[in-house]
Amino acid sequence: MPTCNIISRTLTLSFLLTVTLLQSVADIRACSIKADEQIIFFPTTGRFNNEQKAWKVIIHGWIFEPETDSPTVKSLSNTFGRLINLSEDEIESKIFKERSRLFFVDNERGKKITVRIRNKIYQLKPSRPNGHFEYEVTVPLEPSTKQDGQNTSESIFFETVCDAGHKTYTGTARLINGPGISVISDIDDTIKISEVLDRKALIQNTFVKEFRDVPGMANLYRELERSGAVFHYVSASPWQLYPPLSKFMADR
Questions:
Q1: Phi and psi for 134 in degrees, rounded to 5?
Q2: Spatial contact of 27 and 126, defined as CB atoms under 8 Å apart
Q3: What is the pLDDT of residues 3-40, one digit of tens each?
Q4: Is pLDDT above 60 for 223?
Q5: Which tens digits make up the pLDDT trace of 112-126?
Q6: Do the beta carbons of residue 107 and residue 29 sit within 8 Å?
């Protein structure tokens, strides 16, 4: 092989590596998450697009700055507790403080979130005034996957891309493709005792008491899952209650 061709190919490879490195650095710099900010990714779904032979994955999250130690937030939390007619003991309880704290955070607007899915970088749309961001990304099939999208893993996992000084936040999207059984289930008074028809009991079950199972439902849903059913949960609860609700469901 002529020497000039070797040099040319070497320079081309070096140029491509430099461009790739600069692009990676730009992707990391696009992350606008500060050290005192947090992200919660909500569980979503991915659907298979036959024309593109790729997954359409919805990424929905919330970015905010906690204010748990602020005297103002403590005062607002106490006022909130009194407005919903909780006693002073209930307002001072650990459960109420934990569940009410996410109602008094600094929502971050205009934040650009960058995530990595299967070694590919995706830039999401900026967060809205309420701190939420939601965007659909296109994820190509893996080389080992059938072209119809079947025999894939059950979920796609993603993570935030930032420099080493930031915490990494992760999320999942359940892949839904082809025929099957889906169970769409409510949460309140279906799998969790809420007593929605009794206002006082509902408030206490939501903000003060440990979440309790509706008897027999966990075993029933496990049986349905073993039969191949996929579950989708709906709730009228505010987004701020997602962390304790997700823990309650994960422990069952």
A1: -145, 130
A2: no
A3: 444 334 434 444 443 434 344 444 444 557 888 899 99
A4: yes
A5: 999 999 989 999 999
A6: no
Scan for tokens 């349905």, then name that residue.
224
Buried b (16+ CB within 10 A) or exposed e, 181-202: eeeeeebbeebbbbeeeeeeeb
CA distance 43 to 48: 17
CB contact at 8 A, 232 and 183: yes
Q: Is 17 exposed, middle or buried (0-12, 13-18, 19+ CB in 10 A)?
A: exposed
Answer whether 184's CB lies under 8 Å from 234's CB: yes
Judged by DSSP in three states, 196 sits in: coil
Cα Rg of the chain, angstroms? 23
Q: What is the mean pLDDT of residues 60-74?
A: 89
Q: Please give the Cα distance from 138 to 120 (Å, whole number).
A: 10
- Identify the burial level of 207 via C-beta atoms within 10 angstroms of its C-beta, where 0-12 means exposed, 13-18 middle and 19 or more buried: buried
Alpha-carbon gap, residue 46 to 48, rounded angstroms: 7
Q: Name, in order, each residue with C-beta under 8 angstroms of 13's C-beta and a sequence gap of 6 or more.
A: none
Label the pairing between strands 44-49 and 54-65. antiparallel
Q: Report the C-alpha gap between 32 and 201 in whole angstroms.
A: 42
Q: Which residue's structure tokens are 């930031």?
A: 166
Q: Which amino acid is at 201?
A: A
Gap between the Cα atoms of 63 and 96, Å rounded: 22
